[in-house]
Amino acid sequence: MIKLLVLGPTGVMGKLISELALKDDEIDIVAACDIINLGDKLESIVAVKDSKNIIITDVNNLQKVIDQTKPEVAVDFTVAAATEKNCLICAKNGIRCVIGTTALSQEFLNEFENLVKNYQVPSVISPNMATGVNILFKTASTLTNYLNDWDIEVIEAHHHRKIDAPSGTALKIGQIISNSLGSDFEQIVKFGRNRGPNKRLIGGKNELGFHSIRAGDIVGDHIILYAGPGERIELKHQAHSRYCFAEGAIKAIKFITQVKEAKIYSTSEVLGF
Ligand SMILES: NC(=O)c1ccc[n+]([C@@H]2O[C@H](COP(=O)([O-])OP(=O)(O)OC[C@H]3O[C@@H](n4cnc5c(N)ncnc54)[C@H](O)[C@@H]3O)[C@@H](O)[C@H]2O)c1
Q1: pLDDT of 204 over the 80 cut
Q2: Which of 162, 205, 251, 254 is catalytic?
Q3: How far apart are CA 193 and CA 187, in angstroms?
Q4: What backbone torsions phi and psi does residue 70 show, to the nearest 5 degrees?
Q5: Domains of the chain, start order
Q6: Ligand 1 centre and the CA of 232: distance in Å?
């Protein structure tokens, strides 16, 4: 059984991951830490019977919780400021991390990567753990190789509670496209547009446009638009339910206990693409 620490169990994603983990024969939730619902039973939050009666505890006591419960893996879908603190603590305690939180800073990513090597804690960081989106990443790379002189725009839509924009997934798509174009992402990216005309050339390179929609309860849509002379292709992924992300997180939890090399893995690696 994999001894799991859930960070952010009361969040939309944290609840789904806790539900799937409680139902999974290979996973044993040993602790759940948050900043709200402290003292509540996890089963009252996720509506799944929990024979261990896990109580939601204060994340500010994380070190004490780790000392008492000895988790092997931590799963974190919270907010960047929390992840950047709590996952450093986990890594320093030899706990392998599965991180789905988006908008993480480059400073954190650098520091975390060093800890992964120094403390030998393989971990997963992925802005999107859905299978289909990771196929979209692969497809975008291939398509961009063929269509590198076409105009490319990334359009994403999410629910109005989402904190970051563009989404972590859209940014990853941007990195993949830039790599295929042989361009520096920061040099060609164009977030949103003002009144026109909008010339598409930045420093002699065709720009890569991003557009974010925040509305209602949209789970997550991503479109990559390739437009050439007289024709266009749209690659589109739509998440209908957050279970596609939660199931990806469960796969990542199981995968990360099996690997030896101390590095940061992607969902593509988890899924073996
Ligand atoms: N990687 C993926 O596949 C994927 C999919 C969906 C969402 N996300 C990302 O996951 C994150 C969470 O999304 P959500 O919709 O569940 O958000 P949410 O607002 O519903 O949940 C956030 C949770 O974090 C908790 N939290 C806040 N500060 C904390 C702290 N210091 N320590 C522990 N917990 C703390 C909150 O109490 C809440 O329970 C976001 O960054 C989102 O972009 C990733």
Answers
A1: no
A2: 162
A3: 16
A4: 50, 55
A5: 2-125+242-271 (3.40.50.720), 131-239 (3.30.360.10)
A6: 36
